[in-house]
Amino acid sequence: MSPMVLRAPVVAAVLSLCAACASSQTPPSPRPSDAAVTAAASEAPPPSPRPAALNAAPPAPAAPSPGFAAWREGFRARALAAGVPSATFEAAFAGVTVNKTVLERDAFQPEFVRPIWEYLDSAVSATRIANGRDNLASKRGTLAGIADRYGVDPEVVVAIWGLESAYGTYTGDIPVVEALATLAYEGRRRDFGEEQLLAALRILAAGDVSPNRMRGSWAGAMGHTQFIPTSFLQYAVDHDGDGRRDLWSDDALDALASTANYLSRFGWERGAPAAVEVRLPRGFDVALADGRARPGADWAARGVRAAVGGTPPPAAEAELILPAGANGPAFLTYRNFDVIKRYNNATSYALAVVLLSDELAGREGLQAAWPRSERPLSRSETEEMQRRLTGLGFDTQGVDGIIGPATRSAVRGFQSSRGLPADGFASAALLARLRAEGGG
Ligand SMILES: [Ca+2]
Predict the structure, then answer these.
(1) pLDDT for 2 beyond 70
(2) Which of 22, 128, 264, 393 suits 121 as a labelling partner, its CA being 20 to 30 A distant?
(3) Has residue 70 been placed in a domain?
(4) Ligand 1 centre distance from Cα of residue 114 (Å)
């Protein structure tokens, strides 16, 4: 229930994602990541049934929307000019109004960030593992057919399904046209809303689904695997051959095949790892977790070993990530990891898919412990840290309360200059150190 997009830094990420969607360069993610989820600091969207969203503030009083009718007329002209049949438009917009829930979710920017381990506790819970195994077993033949046809691993498809909608349990009940019309009319992502709304109308015009059944998340992510409309148009498939790309049907067949197709189109390599947990030797330079891919032999020569089995890493190029800093688990990530991030551009999400699919495939789970005594910085603390780092000459490229690559890089620069392990992790201790130095 959280399509992608929406975090922005939370905002920033969201918007950049949307921008990416719009550009021809970057294909759209199936869905925007949810701002609420994104617990900022950790780019972590919560698993579908998203607690953060549920805890959002109570609905605001109904906003009068005299402007909505005028917007609708203007949009109607644009949609018809873009080839949407007027009958489709009228049917889609019957009864559509500004949706307050959508506006609230859109505006929601949590101050407190969920640590990645809490997100993963929920994303890879015993229940989600058990339900995933049940689905894998009961759909074995179907999934094997999909896996062969698209060249993907069935456990990964099922893991994504489990994270996106708890295996079809939470697909979202907001009429998609209303959600997107609301976002297009007002809020923080009007361009995204209008682009997706046009795509939604094209889907309706194609007859894949009726307006009443076309429901999804507040940001327009639809069905079992939470595709946003532009992703639907590009990647959804009619696997069962009934003439409709149906991501809402009980059997999930088209949705699972659509996810497999999505992964395939972004370059999934069947049987190759997405990420492997590793052990780092004593004295390892954690500054190497800098986002650069290095050959497996390079990691092996530096003493990096698989956490399970102790073998040297595969030959393929890999990046080292330390999602909770030097005191938490370490992973080498491969091309398939980047493919998962095309689905949802959050490291925590991709890690959840990896860990859940490992469990579904019967592989060993996580070996190292998360540093659960660490407290993630709140949004305002992150802004303070960004101001202080930038003031000291470590440019975070803006103060947005969101920890992205530039901020991590600035943290590493500061740590290196002070002789600290340069893991790029923004901890409370780091902020305390910055405060002690003053300035900023
Ligand atoms: Ca179908």
Answers:
(1) no
(2) 264
(3) no
(4) 38
Under 8 Å between Cβ of 4 and 17: yes
User: Is residue 307 located within the same domain as residue 402?
Assistant: no
Q: Report CA(169)–ligand 1 centroid distance (Å).
A: 19
Range of the domain at 291: 275-360
**Whether pLDDT at 41 is above 50:** no
State the distance from the centre of ligand 1 to the C-alpha of 239, rounded, in angstroms: 6
pLDDT tens for residues 103-150? 999 999 889 989 999 999 999 999 999 999 999 999 999 999 999 999
- Among all residues, which ones are annotated catalytic? 164
Q: How confident is the model at residue 33 (pLDDT cuts 50, 70, 90)?
A: very low
- Rounded to the nearest angstrom, the distance between the alpha carbon of 224 and the centre of ligand 1 is 13
Cβ-based neighbours of 238, under 8 Å, separated by 6 or more: 244, 245, 246, 254
| One domain for residues 143 and 252 | yes
Residue 106 sits in the same domain as residue 222: yes
Q: How far is the CA of 253 from the centre of ligand 1 (A)?
A: 8
Q: Residue 71: is it exposed, middle or buried by C-beta count within 10 angstroms (0-12/13-18/19+)?
A: middle
Cβ atoms within 10 Å of 291's Cβ, excluding its own: 13
Q: What is the pLDDT of residue 10?
A: 29
pTM: 0.86
